[in-house]
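Chain entry —
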Amino acid sequence: KMYRTVKATSGRQIFQPLHTLRNAEKELLPGFHQFEWQPALKNVSSSWDVGIIDGLSGWTSSVDDVPAETIGRRFRYDVALVSALKDLEEDIMEGLRERGLDDSACTSGFTVVIKESCDGMGDVSEKHGSGPAVPEKAVRFSFTIMSINIRLDEEEDAVTIFQEQKPNSELSCRPMCLMFVDESDHETLTGILGPVVAERKAMLESRLILTIGGMQRSFRFFFRGTGYDEKMVRELEGLEASGSTYVCTLCDSTRAEASENMVLHSITRSHGENLERYEIWRTNPFSESADELRDRVKGVSAKPFMETQPTLDALHCDIGNATE
């Protein structure tokens, strides 16, 4: 897709000297396009190349010279979103034309729905190299632009001008952060993804002003964390692992209850409630024994750090299908 885009934007074939290709590629990389946020994003670094977390000494400034101790590389979230939107510029303009909308009238009211995904990539160790010693596991955080809608007037229904046809394809899934870390390492994962969560939270309260089709337009973003598997949801929500007595990430049922009652399962807990339970787990205000305390917090054992939408998770679907 990248080379198709290179050809589309340049109109030239891609059999060219490498430096020409490199220059065309730079336009596709985050950091190339101008944009602004209204109001400005709170608590977000103003430099876009926050790319590298060096395991020893914090941030380094360069994106290209990767120190040997690097454990994570990423783009700033909003910069990556801008790059993704610019990549869809032709699709957006085409969508406006197909709906018979005058593109000069459509400068605001765009909403973009983002699916977020995060998963472990398994064993990535060097089998017989002499490179730096890094953890053998890697985790990748990525996002997909699922749809773009526009609402021209307050009372009108939103019109969909772009819908991702293959939302699970690697072509539409854009990697934002790669880290050498085991997905079970709650602390390191929190340390690396913490700033990502802060950026995402800031973007929810602001509008992106970006030039699409030669005119400035404003976009609002909605994020749906539906690309996490159950293990990652448990990790992000601070729950016990999947072998826990408490089978579900969204309600308090135990294995025994789930096997007896296939029907009456409902989503009973929120992110905020999990935070309260973590505090109970941490402070043990009633001086209970380990088993009593565990029964009280129903499997919440670490601090959750990323709110997940209370959508139906895999286990509730299984119970609904009577396969538990």
Observations:
- The mean pLDDT is 79.
